[in-house]
Structure formats: C-alpha cells, structure tokens
C-alpha cells in the first residue's frame, strides 16, 4: 500500500519548511505549492489524497488582485477535484473559522503543528472523506433507482405536503416536479376517495405500514388514473423525538389493468347472461367426462334436475345403452377434435334427437383438460324434414300419376271414339246379315271384345277422373258386404275373410259401382298375394284428419271427418321398387296372361274421383294393408280421435 499523498499549500517561510519536514517524518509523500493558483494546478496534476492549505496563503486575507487566496483555492480543490482539505491556522479565532467554513473543510490544524495533532487531523479528514464519498455514491445509486423506477414514487411530509416525486410520476400524470412539490396530496386525488386518502395520510404520519391501497388520481390533462399505493416500511429521516419527517409512497399505475378487469367482468356478465338465457344446452365436462358446469337449458332439454346434473356422467344420467355412443364422441373431442353428432336420448318417456357440438378445452400449457358442448333439440326439425320429404315425394307421385292419368284419359277418349265406330258397324252388319251364321259368330266376338274394351275404357276414364257423375249416398258397410258375398265362392279353402267394421258412421257420397269394383279389385289382389292361403281383413274406422296429415298424403283430402276403409292381407308383401309403381296404369306383378284390367291404378283413380286418398303399407314377407280415406257425408264433429 503506497504512502498517503499530501499537498502542502504554504508560503516559503520557515514554519512551512518545518511542517513539510514533519509530514515527511510521519510518512506522508508531500507536494508543495506557495500560492492558490499553484496549489490548484499541483492538485489537478498529482491527485493527492489530502490538501493542507494555509487559510492566509499569499499573506493577504483576500489574495492578490486576480489571484486565489487559500480559502478560495481550498474550495475549488474540494468542489472540483473531490479532494478533502484541512486548513492550517495560526490561531483558531472565530472570524477565521467562519471564513473557512465556506470551503467545507475536513479539519483544522493550528500552530505549533505537533506531529500527533497533524496525524490525527489527516486521518480524521481521510476517514470522513471516505465515508462521505461512499454516502454520495450510495445516494446517487438510490437516487437513480428512485428516479428511474417504473413505480411512481412520492415523498410526503407529516402534513400531507409533497416534497419529492420521481420521473415515473411526471411521465404517468404529466406534471413537472416543480408543479407538485409543496402542494397537498389531496389536490390530486379524486373526491370520492377522500376518505381513503385521509386514512393513507394518517398511516403515513403515524409510521404505520400498509400493503396496498388503490386510489383514483387526476393527471394534468384531467384524465383519471387508478394507482395502487403502498407505504414504505420505514419512515424517512425520523426526528429526534421519533416523529416522522417524511414518508415514501410507492404507486403503480393499474389503470389499464383495472379497465381490463372491468371489461373482463362485463364480458363475464354478458357471457353469463347469454349462458343462462340460451335455449340450447351449454355444458362443460372434465377429463372424466363428468358435468362440471351446465346452463339451465341443459337440465330442461334433457329433462333432468339441474342440482343433480353436476358431478355426474352420461351413464348415470341416460343409462349405459346410450352412454357408450356419447362417451366415444366425447373422447374424440378430448383428443382435440371439434365435431357435431346427432344422438337419440331418452327424455321422460320419449326419445328425442339432439345435435351436439363438442370442442376441447385446453389449459395454459395447451393440454386438454375438458370439453365444452352445445346441444340442441332437433326432434321437431328432423320430423319437419321427414314430413317435408314425404310431402315432396307425395307431391311428386301425385303429379306423376296425374300426368299418367291425363295421358290415359286422352287415349281412352280416342279409343272410345274408335270403339263406337267398331260397335256401330258390327251391330249394323249383324242386322243386315242375320242369315249368315259364320259372319254372325264373328260379329258376336267383335261385340264381346268391344264390350270388354268399353269396360277398360271406363276404368281409364275413372282413373283420369272423367268417369261417372252418378253419385249418391252410399253405406260402405253395405258395399263391403256385397264384395264379400261376391268373393266368398271363389276363395281358396285356405283363405278366410275377417270383418272389423268399427265405424259407426259409414255414409259417403259416391258411385257405388265404382267403389264396389275398387274394393273387389283390392280383395282379389290380396287373394293373389297369398298363394298358400291366409286371411283378408276388411276394416272401417272413422277419424278426423288435420291439415298436416292431408298435406303429407296424396289425393284431394281436406281436413275434417273421414271414413277409413282398410283391406289387409298377410301375404308376400311388396318391396319399395314395386310400391313406387303400383298406381301406374297396366303395371302388374302378375304373369301377363293373368293380369286383367288396370289393377291398383283403377283403385287410385276411383278414390281420387271421390275426393279421397289411398295409402299402401307393405313390407316383403309382412303382408300389405291398403287404406282408403273418404270424406264422411255428415256434419263435422270434434269429439273423434285425430290422426
């Protein structure tokens, strides 16, 4: 460790030389200067550890004109070069001491400059300077931290007056430091927080510590900022009587955070309102596929008690027969898929169709922790779609059959005209050539074939709704009895007939002959469908058809009271391809030589001509039921069952 370097600023009188020697004898390295200017120059060049300056350097209290006296030189050495100064005094009179105080001396040594006195003054000055330098560095560091801190730092006195603020205060609130120092804290606070501010100042005055307190503060531009304040744990510069002289208040601008929290709360409230008011079921399941959250609609749609819904699985709610399909889809959602599936679930004593959309829920690390589901009851929509498709199919079928009917009617009219010519000429020839037996036999064959053709033409015209206009009140039960009487003699012994005539009112308006022919045709078809024997059932029932049913079924039906006539067999049945064509004229499943007349096409035309409708229900191997619906000829009633 090197010697302590000392600058001795003294004139060249014998006492200076003696002091120089004493300093070297103590062990100091000494540089000398004999004037203020020289002392300042040597100090700048040699950077001594300490300067010992004669307070009366240059022999004049104020120094030469334009020069530096000892006190002025000492002040510059201390202030500009940060070198501690010890003054050399001839005597310690008050006047001289007052003059030297302006230079901020670190000590004084008076004549006769004893070595112990010199050593003590030097060591004390160096120690004091070292402490002050460390203190200044510490203060500089803390001032930098204080000023550059992202938090808002405010120093207030016991009376609530601001004594200091940092740069963050200026940047956030827009004030300059000089605009706020000396003003009371209350001037910057929102009035609605005056009570909280008073509490904060009370704590600051009493030296208490509080973790945090949010306050609304006005910026210079009038905007309102929310600051989160806390008091420093220790008071600043406590007075001798332990009274607090100041307190550091630390603030954090949480305006954006508070706004974000308010926005988040509003969004949560909106989402909760949507969640609660939604007509669709909205639910959340955990990884164990148990319900953890559900809106009121979930319980309503599933027919469950909401209190018993949470914490339970689908197996507990719907049974294992339905839970398997639900769990399979849920597992796919937990694996990261977003999917929509239809599920049929029991609700009360009925099955309902639900369209359920599922999506995974992830945690902050991107791991699936559950799923969110939205379920909608689409039972009515699916039924409406089925009804619409059925209506479209029925409408298409009706138009197709109508087109065929128009074609058949046109052909029948042309054939009828031709047949009239054939029959007329044949009858004329028979009258003219009665003696020609061979010709008479041929003419009889022509007239017989013409008669059968005429019957076929009538069927075509009936199909095309151009048949007989002879309508009257008809008792359908009587018509059925007549058909049964005609049918029994020709039935296979293995086939029997059953009557289930429940309808109390069986009167309709129509052509009895046409309806008899239609029912007989159906009975013969039923017999042909049971080559090994079976049962033919004739049934009647009265019912009320609504508008929806009428729209989804072909024919000219109108809402109201109707008679249903059913002809059922337990024969071979028909496939869909056959069902799609049964009402076409001349379509048959029989062998060509066994097919007679127009078949079901004639039945269709007859029923349609009676403002009715025909419905065929059949499956291969399950027999066939043909339902005919005819309007009843009676006043409307409302106490009958609806279809």
Short description:
It is built from 19 helices and 22 strands. The protein is an alpha+beta fold and 643 residues long.
The helix tally amounts to 19
Total number of distinct structural domains? 5
Q: Which regions have little confidence, pLDDT < 50, spanning 5+ residues?
A: 592-597, 636-643
Query: Percentage of helical residues?
Result: 40-55%
Q: How many individual β-strands? A: 22
Largest sheet: 5 strands, parallel
CATH-derived topology of the largest domain: Heat Shock Protein 90
**CATH homology-level superfamily of the largest domain:** Histidine kinase-like ATPase, C-terminal domain
Q: Given the helix and strand composition, which structural class is it?
A: alpha+beta
> What is the residue-mean pLDDT, rounded to a whole number?
81
Distance between termini?
Answer: 118 Å
Query: Strand order of the main beta sheet, please?
Result: 2-1-3-4-5
CATH class of the largest domain: Alpha Beta
What gross morphology would you assign? rod-shaped
Question: What is the rounded Rg?
Answer: 59 Å
Beta-strand fraction estimate: 15-25%
Q: Per CATH, which architecture of the largest domain?
A: 2-Layer Sandwich
How does this structure look, described?
Helix 16 runs antiparallel to helix 19. The protein is an alpha+beta fold and 643 residues long. Strand 11 (281-286) and strand 12 (291-294) form a beta hairpin. The protein has 19 helices and 22 strands. A 5-stranded parallel beta sheet has the order 2-1-3-4-5, with helices on both faces. A 5-stranded antiparallel beta sheet has the order 7-6-10-9-8, sandwiched between helices. A 5-stranded antiparallel beta sheet has the order 12-11-15-14-13, with helices on both faces.
